[in-house]
Amino acid sequence: MPAFLSPEEAAFIALRNTLHSYYPLSDATWAAYRALCNWHEIRKGAELYSAGDIPRSFAYVHRGLFRVYVLDDKGAEYNKNFFPEGRFPGSMTALLKQQPSLYTIDALEDSAIIEIDHAGYRRLLNEREDLKLYHIHYLERHWLMDKEPREVALVQDEASVRYQRFLQDFPSLAQRLPQYHIASHLGVTPTQLSRIRKNLLTNQPM
């Protein structure tokens, strides 16, 4: 490995390692996958994908943090999800249906990403067995094992329990996110979250 890597080269190495953590891709599949990709940096506050637009790509986060949010009919924001390093933000339903996205995805930090052409990815997915197996493993982990418990918790658990689960599942995000973003994600007001945090601190064993 060369002594010095450009930010772009480092990002592609990280992307391949992330893909490999779900299922290893052959050199030929990786070369075809990489040909679908473009690396670039995005500033904090910039929108990666906007509600109302028809997306053409999804992304890999090499450095930084993104959120997916929606607006209700009163203009209030609800943070649906967060995507730190190693994750793949995108409006997947809009990509699959080629319809305007219901969500906006924006950068919460200065970030570096790799954008992946979705149409090309779908074509490659039909051609490469190893990519299909990667795709299955990724969906099982993030759309079944991760997503289902959270959806149940939002309905069944009290806000304080949801907050403690968030701290347990995403300890690094809890340090990086402003409290109002966490509150929006949990479906409570910042004031309610502040009260929950105060109660938890008060009840901690000495």
Explain briefly what this protein structure is.
The chain is an alpha+beta fold and 206 residues long. The protein is built from 10 helices and 7 strands.
Would you give an account of this structure?
This protein is of the alpha+beta class and 206 residues long. The chain has helices spanning 7-22, 27-34, 92-97, 118-127, 129-145, 147-156, 159-169, 171-176, 179-186, 190-202, and strands at 37-42, 47-49, 57-63, 66-71, 77-83, 104-107, 111-117. It has a 4-stranded antiparallel sheet with strand order 2-6-4-5. A hairpin with a 5-residue loop joins strand 4 (66-71) and strand 5 (77-83). Helix 4 packs across helix 5 (129-145) and helix 9 (179-186) packs across helix 10. The protein starts with 6 loop residues before the first helix and ends with a helix. The mean pLDDT is 90.
Features:
single chain, 206 residues, alpha+beta, 4-stranded antiparallel beta sheet, 3-stranded antiparallel beta sheet, 7 strands, 19% strand, globular
